[in-house]
Design brief:
The complex is a heterotrimer of chains A (324), B (234) and C (344).
Chain A: H1 2-33, H2 40-56, H3 61-84, H4 92-116, E1 123-124, E2 134-137, E3 140-143, H5 144-166, H6 168-178, H7 180-185, H8 190-216, E4 218-219, H9 225-238, H10 243-262, H11 266-269, H12 277-286, H13 295-309
Chain B: E1 2-11, E2 14-24, E3 29-33, H1 40-48, E4 55-60, E5 63-64, H2 70-75, E6 78-81, H3 93-100, H4 107-120, H5 122-126, H6 137-149, E7 155-159, H7 167-182, E8 186-191, H8 194-200, E9 203-208, E10 211-217, H9 218-223, H10 225-231
Parallel strand pairs in B: 3-8, 3-9, 6-7, 7-8
Antiparallel strand pairs in B: 1-2, 1-4, 4-5, 9-10
Helix pairs in contact in B: 3-6
Chain C: H1 2-27, H2 30-55, H3 63-78, H4 81-87, H5 93-96, H6 109-133, H7 138-158, H8 160-163, H9 178-197, H10 199-206, H11 223-247, H12 257-270, H13 275-299, H14 304-319
Helix pairs in contact in C: 2-9, 2-11, 2-12, 2-13, 3-6, 3-7, 3-11, 6-11, 9-10, 9-11, 12-13, 12-14, 13-14
The chains are: A mainly alpha (324), B alpha/beta (234), C mainly alpha (344).
Chain lengths: 324, 234, 344
C-alpha cells in the first residue's frame, strides 16, 4: 500500500512538473499581455517534432535538444511578432480567438509537412535511451522518465525564479506584468520584455513537449490541444498571471489527475451495508468503473469551480484589480 | 525645451484634446490647471508617448518626439510621474526605485541618485525592503516622485501629486517640488489644486474640456478673476 | 401600402430561395444538394452563435456542445424500435420504448417532434450552464465554455449506453433534406432579426461601442441575455438534429474544436452583431472551404484549407475586426421602397 502511494506520489510530482512548465509559459504571457495563448500547446507539439526529426537524423542528443529549444523559441517569437503584436490593445476575446487561429496554422502546417515527407499522422517517438527504463530506490521502482521530468522541472523553475527576481530584465517583466503603462514610463522597452516572455515560455514548453512525447510514445499534430487546456487550468488554479501560482497550480493539477486516476470507482468504495444492494447495483451500472475516463471532465469542472468561487486562484487572498 | 503645437488626441472616436499648444522653457516650473476631465493628464500622456497625437507636433529641444515609443522618450530625459501614482505594489520600494533607473548603465550614479531620493524622502529608506503596496498614500506619492527622479530627468512631468494627500503632506511634497526646480529640473506640473500650483509655478495654462483657455505667468493667473472664481474658490 | 412594399423585398428573397431549392431538389445533383444543406446548417449555427456571442458580447466557445447534445438526443429518439433494441441494447427502459419514427401522412412528424424535444432539453441544459457560467466575463467565460465543450465530449464518450461511446453512431434515418434545413434557417433568421430589432436587442448592441469589448459584461445580471443564450442553444441543438439526420452517422469527435473554429470564422468574417453579415460570412467561408477542399483532394495537400482559413481569420481580426458588415444590415425591406428610414 505504502509502495503504491509512494509511486503515485512520484507520478503526481512528475506530471505536476510538466504541467508547471507549461503553465508558467502561459502565465508569463498572460501576466504581461492579458493574452491567453492557446497556441502554446502547439509550441509543445512543434518541439516534439523538432526533437523527433533531429533524433531520426541521428544527431547527438545535446544537439537535438538545442535545435528543439531554439526552433521552438523561434516559432514562439515569430508568433508574437506576426500574430499578436498587431493586435496589442485589442480586447481579450479577439486575442484569444487569434491564438486559436495560430494553433490551427501550426497544427495543419505540421500535418501538411508530415504529408509532404510521406510520414504518417501519428509517428512513434524515438525516445533517447536516457529516458527509458526504470530506476529502483529500494523497493520502489520509478520510471526514469518521471525522475527526469521532476528534476528537470525543478531545476528550470528554480532558474526561472532566479532570473525573475535577480535580474533587471526579470524585474522589468514583473513590473510589466503588474502595470504595463507604468512600466513603459520607466523606460522599459516592452517589445523586448514581451519577446523575452514568449521566448522563455516557448523554451519551457519545448522541454515539456519532449517529456510528453517520450511519455506518450508517439506524436501527432494535435497532441498539444489537451495539454494547453490543462496548463491553463493549472495556471488559473494557482492564480492566473502569477508565475508562482502557475507552478503551484501545475503541481496541484498533477496531483489531482493522479488522484482521480488512482482511486477506484465509487460503486466499489462504498462500504457494504451502507446502501442497499439494489442501490449499489444501480451505482455500479451507471457510474463509471473508475473515475479515469471522466478525469478530463472533472478537471474542467474544477476549473469552473475555481473561476466562480476563487477567480484569483486558490493562493491569492487579496483582490487583484489588475486582472480585470 | 518642450513645445506642443496644435495637438489633437483621440480616445477611439472621442476627441480629448484640441488645439493644444504650450511651451516650457528650460528651468521653468509650468503648471497646467483645470477641473477634472479637462484633458490635463491626456496632455502629459501625449508628451510621454503613452498616447499619440492624431494632429499636431510635440517637440523636445527642437526634436519631434510625437512618433516615438515611450521608452525612447524616457531615454531623451523626460520622466512622467503618472496620476494615481502607479507604483508597482507587488515589488519592494527599492525595486521600484531601481526600475526608475532601468535604462541607466552607471551603477555609481544610480546609487548616488538613490541616496539622494532617500535624503529627500527618509521614510522610503526606512521602508526600502517593504512591498510598495503596503505604503500609505503619502508614502506612495513620495515613492512615485522618487522613482521618476531616478532616471535623472531633464524634464519632469508630474500628474496630480496632491491627489489624496493630507494637508501636512501636501506642504512637504510641494516644498520638495520647489527644491527640485531650484536644483535645475524643468517641471511641467498638472494639478487640480490650483492654489498650491500657482504658488510655486513660474507660468501656467488653464485647460477646459480639452482646450487651453488661458495662459500667463503665475501672478497673472492668480489675479485673473475667472481663475480666482473657478479654481481658487474665492 | 408601405408595409406591403417593405415586405416585398424579403418576400422576393424567399421566393428566390424557394425556386433555387426546388431546382436543386429536382436536379438530383447530390453534391450540390449536400452543399446547400451544409450551408443551411452552418447558417443556423452561425446565427445562433451570433445571437449568443455577437449580440451579448459574451463569447461562448462551447456551443458545439449543444449541437452534439441535440444530435445525439434527437437521433436516439428517432431510431425505430427494432433498431433501437439491436443497436442500443442498454438504454434505460423508459427511453428504449420511445421511437419518434412516425409520420403524419407523408410528413415525418416524429422527426419534428424529436428535434423539438431534444432542443428543449438542450435549452434547459443551457439555462443551467448559463446561470453558472455567465457570472464570468471576458476571456474567462470563453475558456469556461470551452470547458463545457470538453465535458460534453467526455460524457458522450463515456455514456456508451446512450451514445455507443467512441464507436460511430449510425443507422440514423436520413430525414433531413433541403426543405427542412432552409425552413429552419428562415425561422432562425427571422427570430434573430426580430430580437436584434427589439428594444432589448437594441439595448444590448448600443451598450457597447465595441463589439468585442466583452470584459466588463457578465450575463447573469440581465435575464434577457440569459434568454438569448438559451434560445441560441435551442437553435444550435436543432442544427445538431438536422446534421445528425443528414450525415446519418457520426461520433463525438465531430463536435469538437475544428467545427467550433469554423463556425467562429464564419461569424467573424461576416461581422458579429449583423444578421446579414452572418449570411454572407457563412456563404463565403463554406464556399471557400469547399473550393479549397477540392484543391486539397486534387493536390493531396491536406491541411492547407485549414491554414488558409486561419490566415484569413487573423487578417480579418487585424485589419477589419468588425468583420465585413460590422453591425450593419443589408436592408432587404428597403429594396422596393424609396426614401424612408434606414433599417438597422
Amino acid at each position: 500500500m505504502l509502495l503504491y502511494v509512494t509511486q503515485q506520489f512520484v507520478n503526481a510530482l512528475s506530471l505536476g512538473s510538466l504541467y508547471a512548465l507549461m503553465a508558467v509559459g502561459l502565465a508569463m504571457v498572460f501576466g504581461i499581455l492579458r493574452l491567453i495563448n492557446f497556441a502554446h500547446g502547439d509550441l509543445m507539439m512543434v518541439a516534439a517534432y523538432f526533437a523527433a526529426f533531429a533524433l531520426f537524423a541521428n544527431l547527438p542528443l545535446g544537439l537535438a535538444l538545442v535545435l528543439m529549444i531554439g526552433g521552438t523559441m523561434g516559432v514562439g517569437l515569430l508568433m508574437e511578432r506576426v500574430a499578436y503584436r498587431p493586435i496589442r490593445g485589442a480586447p481579450d476575446v479577439a486575442a484569444l480567438l487569434t491564438s486559436f487561429a495560430v494553433g490551427q496554422i501550426l497544427q495543419n502546417g505540421t500535418l501538411l509537412f508530415t504529408r509532404l515527407i510521406q510520414k504518417p499522422i501519428q509517428i512513434a517517438f524515438p525516445s533517447p535511451e536516457l529516458l527509458n527504463g526504470v530506476i529502483a530506490f529500494g523497493p520502489v521502482t520509478v520510471p526514469r522518465l518521471n525522475i527526469v521530468s521532476l528534476v528537470t522541472g525543478v531545476i528550470l523553475l528554480v532558474l526561472l525564479s532566479l532570473f525573475v527576481t535577480r535580474t533587471t530584465l526579470g524585474l522589468s517583466m514583473r513590473a510589466a506584468a503588474e502595470d504595463l503603462s507604468a512600466a513603459q514610463l520607466m523606460g522599459i522597452d516592452i517589445n523586448r520584455v514581451i519577446a523575452t516572455a514568449f521566448a522563455i515560455g516557448s523554451g519551457l514548453a519545448a522541454v515539456a513537449g519532449l517529456l510528453f512525447a517520450v511519455q506518450a510514445g508517439q506524436i501527432n499534430p494535435y497532441m498539444g490541444f489537451t495539454p494547453v487546456l490543462k496548463a491553463f487550468i493549472a495556471a488559473v488554479i494557482g492564480g492566473f498571471g502569477s508565475i508562482a501560482g502557475a507552478v503551484v497550480g501545475g503541481y496541484v493539477l498533477g496531483g489531482l489527475e493522479v488522484f482521480l486516476t488512482a482511486i477506484p470507482g465509487i460503486g466499489d468504495i462504498l462500504p457494504a451495508g451502507f446502501v442497499s444492494p439494489e442501490v449499489q447495483a444501480f451505482l455500479k451500472q451507471w457510474l463509471p468503473a473508475s473515475l479515469t475516463s471522466y478525469r478530463d471532465a472533472f478537471v474542467f469542472v474544477a476549473l469552473i469551480l475555481v473561476l466562480l468561487f476563487r477567480p484569483n486562484g486558490i493562493l491569492r487572498r487579496r483582490e487583484r484589480e489588475e486582472m480585470q | 525645451m518642450l513645445e506642443l503645437h496644435d495637438v489633437e488626441v483621440y480616445y477611439g472616436s472621442i476627441r480629448a484634446l484640441k488645439d493644444v499648444s504650450l511651451a516650457v522653457a528650460e528651468g521653468e516650473l509650468v503648471t497646467l490647471i483645470g477641473s477634472n476631465g479637462a484633458g490635463k493628464s491626456t496632455t502629459l500622456k501625449a508628451i510621454s508617448g503613452l498616447l499619440r497625437p492624431r494632429v499636431g507636433r510635440v517637440q523636445y529641444r527642437g526634436q519631434p518626439i510625437d512618433r516615438l515609443p515611450p521608452h525612447q522618450i524616457v531615454a531623451l530625459g523626460i520622466s512622467h510621474c503618472p496620476e494615481g501614482r502607479h507604483i508597482f505594489g507587488r515589488l519592494t520600494v527599492a525595486e521600484n526605485l531601481r526600475l526608475g533607473a532601468v535604462q541607466r548603465r552607471d551603477p555609481d550614479g544610480i546609487r548616488q541618485d538613490r541616496e539622494r531620493v532617500y535624503e529627500l524622502f527618509p521614510v522610503l529608506k526606512e521602508r526600502s525592503r517593504q512591498l510598495a503596496g503596503t505604503l500609505s498614500g503619502g508614502e506612495q506619492q513620495m515613492l512615485a516622485i522618487g522613482r521618476a527622479l531616478m532616471s535623472r530627468p531633464k524634464l519632469l512631468l508630474l500628474d496630480e501629486p496632491s491627489l489624496g494627500l493630507a494637508p501636512l503632506l501636501l506642504a512637504a511634497i510641494f516644498d520638495t517640488i520647489q527644491q527640485l526646480k531650484r536644483a535645475g529640473t524643468t517641471i511641467l506640473l498638472v494639478e487640480q489644486n490650483a492654489r498650491l500650483a500657482l504658488e510655486i509655478a513660474d507660468r501656467g495654462y488653464v485647460m477646459e474640456t480639452g482646450r487651453i483657455t488661458l495662459a500667463g505667468t503665475a501672478a497673472e493667473l492668480k489675479a485673473n478673476p475667472q481663475v480666482e472664481h473657478t479654481y481658487l474658490g474665492t | 401600402m408601405t408595409d406591403l412594399r417593405r415586405a416585398a423585398g424579403p418576400l422576393a428573397a424567399i421566393l428566390g430561395l424557394v425556386i433555387v431549392l426546388a431546382l436543386l431538389q429536382a436536379s438530383g445533383l447530390a453534391y450540390w444538394q449536400g452543399l446547400f444543406i451544409n450551408l443551411g446548417i452552418f447558417l443556423i449555427l452561425v446565427l445562433s452563435l451570433n445571437l449568443s456571442s455577437g449580440f451579448t458580447g459574451v463569447f461562448s466557445l462551447g456551443h458545439i456542445g449543444f449541437m452534439a447534445l441535440g444530435a445525439y438526443g434527437s437521433a436516439i429518439l428517432t431510431l425505430p424500435l427494432r433498431e433501437k433494441q439491436e443497436y442500443l441494447p442498454n438504454l434505460p427502459a423508459g427511453l428504449a420504448g420511445v421511437h419518434f419514427d412516425f409520420h403524419l401522412g407523408p410528413f415525418p412528424l416524429g422527426f419534428l417532434l424529436a428535434t423539438l424535444v431534444a432542443a428543449v432539453l438542450v435549452a434547459l441544459v443551457a439555462l443551467l450552464v448559463g446561470l453558472v457560467l455567465m457570472r464570468l466575463s471576458g476571456h474567462f467565460v470563453a475558456v469556461a465554455t470551452l470547458g463545457f465543450l470538453v465535458i460534453v465530449r467526455v460524457i458522450l464518450f463515456n455514456a456508451d449506453h446512450f451514445t455507443r461511446g467512441s464507436r460511430t453512431f449510425s443507422n440514423v434515418t436520413p430525414y433531413t433534406d433541403l426543405w427542412w434545413v432552409w425552413a429552419w434557417a428562415l425561422v432562425v433568421l427571422y427570430v434573430v432579426r426580430r430580437i436584434k430589432r427589439s428594444p432589448f436587442g437594441r439595448a444590448m448592441l448600443a451598450q457597447r461601442e465595441d463589439r468585442w469589448a466583452a470584459q466588463s459584461i457578465g450575463i447573469a445580471v440581465m435575464p434577457p441575455r440569459l434568454l438569448a443564450f438559451v434560445v441560441s442553444a435551442f437553435f444550435t441543438a436543432v442544427a445538431g438534429s438536422l446534421y445528425a439526420h443528414f450525415i446519418t452517422s457520426f461520433s463525438p469527435t465531430v463536435f469538437y474544436f475544428d467545427l467550433t473554429f469554423r463556425v467562429i470564422t464564419m461569424l467573424v468574417v461576416g461581422g458579429m452583431g449583423s444578421v446579414s453579415g452572418s449570411v454572407i460570412g457563412t456563404v463565403l467561408v463554406v464556399g471557400l472551404a469547399e473550393a479549397l477542399r477540392r484543391i486539397e483532394d486534387a493536390t493531396l495537400l491536406y491541411g492547407m484549407s485549414q491554414i488558409i482559413l486561419a490566415v484569413i481569420f487573423i487578417l480579418i481580426i487585424v485589419f477589419r475586426r468588425e468583420g465585413l458588415l460590422g453591425q450593419r444590415e443589408i436592408a432587404l425591406d428597403r429594396l422596393f421602397v424609396k426614401g424612408g428610414e434606414p433599417s438597422s
